[in-house]
Every structure is written in C-alpha cells, then in structure tokens.
Amino acid sequence: MTYCVGLKLDAGLVLLSDTRTNAGLDNIASYRKTFFFETPGERVIAIMTAGSLSVTQTTIARLEEAAEDADDANSVLNAPSMLRVASIIGETLARTRREIVEQHRDLSQQASASMIVAGQRRGGDMRMFLIYPEGNFIEATEDTPFLQIGEHKYGKPILDRVVRRDTSLADAQKAVLLSMDSTLRSNLSVGMPLDLSVIKRDACAISLKRRIEEGDPDFMKMSAAWSAALRDSFTRIEV
Amino acid sequence: MTYCVGLKLDAGLVLLSDTRTNAGLDNIASYRKTFFFETPGERVIAIMTAGSLSVTQTTIARLEEAAEDADDANSVLNAPSMLRVASIIGETLARTRREIVEQHRDLSQQASASMIVAGQRRGGDMRMFLIYPEGNFIEATEDTPFLQIGEHKYGKPILDRVVRRDTSLADAQKAVLLSMDSTLRSNLSVGMPLDLSVIKRDACAISLKRRIEEGDPDFMKMSAAWSAALRDSFTRIEV
C-alpha cells in the first residue's frame, strides 16, 4: 500500500508521500512516489502515485517521454491549463491501466492506480486533482482543502481537525507529517522514507523538497512529542 | 457501516458499538448492535455485530432461541467454556450467512457479517473473540488487548497509543469513546447513539450498560475537550 496526502491552501501546496511498495508481504521495496515536471518560474506540476507499480511507473515514463518533446500535444509542460494537465494524466493513466489489465486477463489479476496531481502555471490558479484509475478526476476546493490516496483512513482524523484553507505552510507540513505518523504506526504497508514537498503560491517552482529517511532525528522527535502530547491530553480529558 | 471495539484488560472487558445501519446512503436507520446473554454471577456473554442486518439479526435470534431452551446443546448459556460459546456463535453465523447468500444467489448480492464475542463464566477466564463471516475466529491476547469490527481504521491510532492490558476501566472507557469520536467525525456511515458496556473481571455479570444518545452532554464535552487538546498539542509540537 501507500499513503499520499496533498493540501491546497491559500499559501501554497504541501505534498507528502511514503515510499513503500510491496508485492505480497514478503516482497517489500522502496520506490519514490512523488514526481515533478517543472519549468521554474513558468510552471510546476507534482504527481503522487498509489497502486500497481507497473501501472504508475509506465504512466510516469510516458508522461516524461511526452514532456521531452516540445511539440507533443500530450506534454504536461505544454498544456494550456492545469485542467488539461489533469486530463492528459488521466488519459495516460487509464490507457496504461487498460493495457496492463488486458495483459493480465488470463490471470484474472487486478492492476489499478490513482494519482494526486497538483501545480500551477504562470498566470493560472494553483489546482490539485485526484485522478481515478479510470482517468476521471475530482478537484480540491475551498471546502475540502486536502486529498488523499492509498491507506488514507488512519491519517484522516488529524487532517479533519486542523487543516483549513488558511492554515500556514509551516502548520501544514506538521499536519501532513503527523497524519503520516499515525498511518505508519497503524499500518505496516506504509513505510519510510518519506518525500515532503512544498510549492508556494505563484512561485511556479518547487519551493521545498525534503527526503525524510528512517531514523530522521527531527521526524523522530516530532513523532515522540506527538505521542507524548496525545497521551498527556488523554490523561487530562475527563469523561 | 458500523464501528465496534472491544478491550480485554486485566480489570475487565469494555465494549462500545454505534447503532447506524444503512441500505444505501438514502436508507439510514438505528439498530442496536450489542447483545447480552447473562445469568448474573454465573456467566455473561456480550456480542457486538457488524455487517448485513439480515444476517446479524437472524443469527442473534437463533442464539436467543437456543438459549431459552435449557437442554439445547447450542445454548450459549449451557456451553461448558467460552471457547465453545465462540464455536456455537461462529457456526450459527456461518450457517445463517450461507443460507442468506444462497437466497441472494440470483442477484449476485453479498451478505456478510462479523462479530466480537466477549465474556466469562464462573471459574473460567475472561475471553474475547472476533468471529469471521465463515465462522472461524481469533482471540484477543495480552499482546493485542483490543479487537475491532466494521469501520476500524479511523479509531485505531488512539487505541494503538494508549491501550495496554493494565489500562484502568475508567481510562479504557475514555479510550473507546475517543476512538469512536474520531470515527464519527470522519465517517458518516457510523452514527450515534452509542452503546457502552463494561464487564468487570470475575463479576460474571454486566457491570455497566450505558446508552449515549445524540447530544449527550458528557460525550459532547469530552469530544470538544479532545478536539481542543489535539489542536493545542498540534500548536505546541515543533517540526
């Protein structure tokens, strides 16, 4: 499994993904799940992926190939809007998934994937989409400033409680890290290291890209402080 | 959906269930999901249910019918051990489910249910089981003092952090209520009122049975205090 969460706030976009991939419980590996397409100052697009690795890798490879060709109508770096970017990614994902499902037909195996796409092009609005395996998508709005894919339930209560559109980028990073921390503790199929990224409003470029490794002292400290704070709050609450 | 959680602690058993039942999103009703079989001082058995209402109601009705007949070999009030109680309930559940699935065959509809069974008979140990739709079961142990059925993920992080076998019954009630509170906030298909029950070790009787209605002032106060404590802890944590 996977856990990826994206926040679209007034101040910018905050994205966090884990890196654990498994084929069964006895075949576990680390793969990056956050990818960028960027022309700094002009446009930035971040994609986070969940699902079958063969589907997500092939989809990203196809998007990268198209983006290298300045004349390709399917280049996310050429698309005239973030909405068109979401369409291109949705179409590429759906086509890739269909091909792989077709290859697997004799095994009646499933292959599926979903993605969070977030970004901004100069002169346009910041936008964030959740792309479904079939290629259709939904968009984060003012009412619902976050999107999640993969193992999303453990980490939702903290987001429900603290994330609003006017949350600061510093608080937003804390919120996604604590949301991930709850997920890591409760589900073995989500694992370190983590990839944290921040895209400030109107920067049209990646403002922060941080890989958080297993045993990262800051993350461990935050995780321990949060556990202690929860236990302390628990003790103080009266029923 | 449903959320039921049971704790088996040194001090006793603590059980909490919601009451929301839905057939689709436009057909929502309240049904009790906690049931008792009791000969006070001799034996007490609590059952919490999740899944298709037709399966759980018929299973409970059959168990009640058998328990009314003192000679019935399938009476949970006669069974020589809690292990046998779990077997009887598992067999009744599996048989009922099979019959209903058979009735539904032409519709290719699913019907499934699972249960948490907890109790003690005089002279025996307290035990708690999770019964699967197929009738097999697992048991709560010292290492894993809680079992959950239904929509279990939202409420697991708090249990993972605060519940240990030596947790007091007062803290345990707080823990299951906060676990339910997180679930209620994040998932519409779990709803008030709630049924909270406590069975003290060696009482072999229901020690506490409390129905918590929508708008219950104590529950609302606890919920608000927990939200405030979480937000306060969140603010104080440094990344």
Structural overview:
The structure is a homodimer of 239-residue chains. Chain A is 35% helix and 28% strand. Chain A has 239 residues and is of the alpha+beta class. In chain A, helix 1 (53-68) packs across helix 2 (82-103) and helix 3 (156-162) runs antiparallel to helix 4. Chain A has helices spanning 53-68, 82-103, 156-162, 169-186, 217-236, and strands at residues 3-9, 12-17, 20-22, 28-30, 34-39, 43-51, 113-121, 127-131, 137-139, 146-150, 194-200, 208-212. Chain A has one domain (3-236): Aminohydrolase, N-terminal nucleophile (Ntn) domain (Glutamine Phosphoribosylpyrophosphate, subunit 1, domain 1). Chain A starts with a strand and ends with a helix. Chain A has a five-stranded antiparallel beta sheet with strand order 10-1-2-11-12, with helices on one face. In chain A, strands 5-6-7-8-9 form a five-stranded antiparallel beta sheet, with helices on one face.
